[in-house]
Amino acid sequence: MKVPFLDLSIQHQALREQALAALASTYDGTRFCLGKDVETFEENFSKTLGYTRTLGLNSGTSPLHLAAVIAGWGPGDEVIVPAFTFISSAWGVSYVGATPKFVDIDAKTFNLDPAAVEAAITPKTKGIVIVHLFGQPAPMDALLAIAKKHNLFVVEDCAQAVEAKYKGTPVGILGDVGTFSFYPTKNLGGCGEGGALVSKNDAHFDQAKLLRVHGMGRRYYHDQVGFNFRMDGFQGALLNVKLPHLATWTARRQAIAAKYIAGIKLADVILPATVDYGASVYHQFTIRHPRRDALREHLTKHEIGTDLIYPVPLHRQTCYAGLGYAEGSIPVAEKAAATCVSLPIFPELTDAQVDHVIASVNSF
Ligand SMILES: *Cc1c(COP(=O)(O)O)cnc(C)c1O
User: Fold this and answer.
1) What are the transmembrane regions (predicted)?
2) pLDDT tens-digit profile of 43-68?
């Protein structure tokens, strides 16, 4: 039995009629850049997820860039970023000329380790990018307490955690600015690039909105050096079709994860930890094993797709070689990168496929 790591076609075929009708309406109405479809999506996203306002953007990297500008970070400033995440989490910091300070993760949850964060603070530290990695909410109380104590601007990278809640509050508005991605492979994915920014702080939100369109308040009057970060109309239209299904898809991801957690019995395997302060929305189901590559090969033989997310931690990437982090300098993140493998977890997987993954892992 074949189990692809991810198959986007099942979801898109199921929604085909609705999606094409929505896209046709946008096409016929020539609502290509922002426009009504995007506005409707912004309202729907806020209402569905529990935010006051949502800003539709052209990727999940753009809000991280906007957040860095809004925070006022610049050359000479240090910003804490987890060493184990997607590279975008650090991009905003680098784009404004500040320095990412890579910090280790907690061995159980893959999220920032508050003790390591506290130890990394210097007089230059101005902010922190908290990533809710793989859909698992980060330990916000501990991290926000550190941020408050040291007056840090807090960005929540929620690219993998749409619909995740921390003690009942949706992630994204616990810090100063929250960021989302609607890249096609994310839990809520568009038909191309897309992203969003949320904030409970109106001044931050209004600045982001100004920066999104060339720093332009009044037409052709530019108050700040801005960007072109507009969400395109087709993405808004498609996301409006998909958003009503998100809760069902999330529940299915969680049900698959529960099956994996109950069924996988393999010596030396480390399964994703569950936490008492929130439920993961399982963007990934990433396990660890000392013989990861052999396990992966075994699963390939059983026609199961897997992925390495992420094979190289950020502080060991070539683009950050200049920062001088030696091998072994951030050990938990390095060990995670060396032993992790992600199993298929998308809502359209059948129970038989999930059972096949479990049996195949267990037969390793
Ligand atoms: C996907 C992702 C992003 C960036 O999103 P894009 O839409 O690809 O620009 C940022 N952070 C994390 C953790 C991500 O997984």
Assistant:
1) none
2) 999 999 999 999 999 999 999 999 99
| Cβ neighbours for 184, distance < 8 A, ≥ 6 positions apart | 8, 190, 191, 192
The sign of the dihedral angle between the CA atoms of 250, 252, 258, 264 is negative
Q: For residue 6, how many other CB atoms are within 10 A of its CB?
A: 15
CA distance 113 to 36: 42
Question: What are the phi and psi torsion angles at 340 (to 5°)?
Answer: -85, 150
pLDDT of residue 143: 98
Closest ligand 1 atom, residue 182 Cα? 7
Spell out which residues line ligand 1, taking CB within 6 angstroms.
59-61, 85-86, 88-89, 131, 157, 159-160, 181, 183, 193, 195
Q: Which of 84, 88, 155 to mutate to test the pocket of ligand 1 (most atoms within 8 A of CB)?
A: 88
pLDDT at 105: 98
| pLDDT of amino acid 190 | 97
Q: How many CA atoms lie within 13 A of 172 on its CB side?
A: 30
Distance 89 CA to ligand 1 centre (A): 7
- What is the atom index within ligand 1 of the atom nearest the CA of 89? 11
CA distance 44 to 27: 21
Q: How far apart are CA 49 and CA 197, in angstroms?
A: 13
> Residue whose CA is closest, atom 6 of ligand 1?
60
Which of 84, 93, 157 best tests ligand 1's pocket when mutated (most atoms within 8 Å of CB)? 157
As given in the structure block, the two tokens for residue 139 are 């330990």
Residue nearest to atom 2 of ligand 1 (CA): 159
Q: Residue 219 C-alpha to ligand 1 middle, in angstroms?
A: 31
The edge-to-edge listing of strands for the beta sheet with 78-82 is 54-57, 195-198, 177-181, 153-157, 125-131, 78-82, 99-103
Structural domains in the chain, sorted by start: 8-244 (3.40.640.10), 246-362 (3.90.1150.10)
- This prediction's pTM: 0.98
Enzyme catalytic residues: 186
Bridge partners of 39, per DSSP, are: none
**Nearest-atom index, ligand 1, CA of 183:** 7
Spans of the chain, pLDDT less than 50:
none
